[in-house]
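Consider today's protein:

***
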Amino acid sequence: MNENQNRKRWIWFVGGVVTGIALSVFLPAAPTYAVATQGVDNFALATGPVDNNIEGIYFLDGLTGDLKGAVINLANGQFTTYYQTNVLKDLQVDGAKQPKFLMVTGLAAIRHGPSQAQPGLSVIYVMEVNSGVLAAYGVPWNGGRVNVTTAQYNPFILLNKTPMRNVAVRPQ
């Protein structure tokens, strides 16, 4: 290999490194969020972010209509922030009529108000399949909670509910 070819390879190598560094400095990094949702029988489990560096876990019991959530504390690795509401009450569903639910989480940067408890980044969507009514729940979040190790219990915030189907379906 002659000296001219060796010099060209080094120029290409250095040019590639400089270009890579320049791109990493000037192009903004886009955060990625991965959520998971799983359901079995009358239970649904989902995850979703509450802040940029932490997510919550959400559990829906289809028999009782209880929607519960928890956020793990970054300081001690324990669940210290808890949430709860009853979707049967919010969706005006009779629990004796065997309701069927779907639950997923979504990402929404809802505008902050003046209080310390701001909306978290997750929205929990719960749909009762027989009635076709969809509810969206917000997760109140105080960023200072990641440093507090005592337990705190909060209700989910019903953001909105709307019918997604015009005709109710009776369970078989």
Strands lie at 37-40, 43-51, 54-61, 66-72, 79-86, 101-107, 118-128, 133-141, 152-155, 157-163. The helical segments are 3-26, 87-91. The first helix runs from residue 3 to 26.
